Amino acid sequence: MKLNPMGFSFVSVLFLVFLACSSGGLRNRTAAPATVNHASSWQAQGIEALYNGDYTSARKYLIEAYKQQPKDPRTLFYLGLTFELLDKDMLAFQIYSRFVNLPAGEYFRQLMRGRYHWMAARILENQYRKAATKPVNTYWEFVPGHVVVLPFYIQTNAEAWNGIGRALTQVVTRDLEQISRLRVTADLEQQALFRALSLSENIPVNRAVVEKVQNAIGGGRVVVGSIAFRNGAEVQLRAAVIHPQTESLEFVTRSGDITRFFQLQKQLVLALLKEMDIRLTVQEREALHFYPTASIEALRLFGLGLSAEDVGDYAAAEGYYQQAIAVDAGFSTARNQLEYVRIMKLVSTPAPELLRQLPAQKISAAVEPQPEG
Questions:
Q1: For residues 242 and 147, is the Cβ–Cβ distance under 8 A?
Q2: Which of 77, 95, 129 is the last residue of a domain?
Q3: Can you tell me the distance from the alpha carbon of 73 to that of 295, in angstroms, rounded to the nearest whole number?
């Protein structure tokens, strides 16, 4: 159920028909500006109309600007926002999906990307929630390569380890993504699934939870696991691969001194791949040597950031990622996630509120580009 930004072909058809009708009507009523840079003029008029609450006129002007410059990020972003305000969410979603064709460092491209993710997450969340409530399907066929990793359960009440389970989930997921034969549910889909089923590192996984997950994703393999700390010096990692018709759980376990946490994690992933009967290529084995950080505290803070993202608290996530980077300045994964949540913190609001938060970008104000997260 992978969301493809360039998918939704039926929406594309609707959009083209809508575009043709709207632009034709506009030409009959409005003369093109006489200036050479008439696309900028259409854009300015459209954004001005948008901030004045005249969404119908904004749509007309911005469509004209789009026809002149179909890859202008500012035009595309405000056209998508206009469609949202006109209650044409699927057209807006299609417009936002075009962020993939724009320069990576462009500010409005990032706003489009964030808005696309915000809308996509809600579409997925609703789909997962509905699918999970259907009667349990005991006849799911094996889906080759499809894997979802659920939050690792923390078997301790010590608040000092909060977040490490969610971080371990992400690290294991990233490792499995390196295997070309696997189709791993990650990032956008993973967070939507966790939110739909209220999954977190504080929820122990049982058969009922697994059945809901399998119903939601339509079959495939589910990885479940736990992490326990003993005497503050030893860690135990446990995980199991559950197929749609698995009768009993067979956990693989890796234990050792807490200073060997990252080595134990890699050993656990290799054991899981063996359980899936996957033989690694040389390139895949080399890819598994990557460690996002050497600091377990930085990883724990990163996990708290992911947990905050799971529930849509991007402000809290931003703070945790900043703390993780302060502990390990070379933690590039946390740095990339920090840039991402800063954009999401801005765009993850209903369209009318989002419009009020962007007064500086009304027409032609300069916006300092931010690096792609």
A1: no
A2: 129
A3: 39
Phi and psi, residue 287, nearest 5°: -65, -30
Taking the CB of residue 251, how many other CB atoms lie within 10 A of it? 14
For residues 198 and 116, state if they share a domain: no
Check: CB of residue 197 under 8 Å from CB of residue 132: yes
In DSSP terms, which residues pair with 253 in a beta bridge? 238
Distance of CA 184 to the CA centre of its chain: 13
Helices (H) and strands (E) in the chain, counts: 15, 6
* Domain CATH number, residue 234: 3.40.50.10070
Same-domain check for residues 197 and 331: yes
Distance CA 64, CA 75 (A): 10
Whether 191 shows a pLDDT value over 90: the answer reads: yes
- Tell me which H or E stretch contains 128: helix 107-132
Instruction: Using alpha carbons, select from 184, 185, 175, 186 the residue that is nearest to residue 280.
Output: 175
Q: Model pTM?
A: 0.82
CATH code at position 77: 1.25.40.10
pLDDT at 76 > cutoff 60: yes
The pLDDT of residue 145 is 78
Q: Which domain holds residue 289?
A: 146-345
CA–CA separation, 50 vs 59, rounded Å? 8
The residues, ordered by sequence, that sit 6+ positions from 365 with a Cβ below 8 Å of its Cβ are none
Residues 283 and 206 reside in one and the same domain: yes
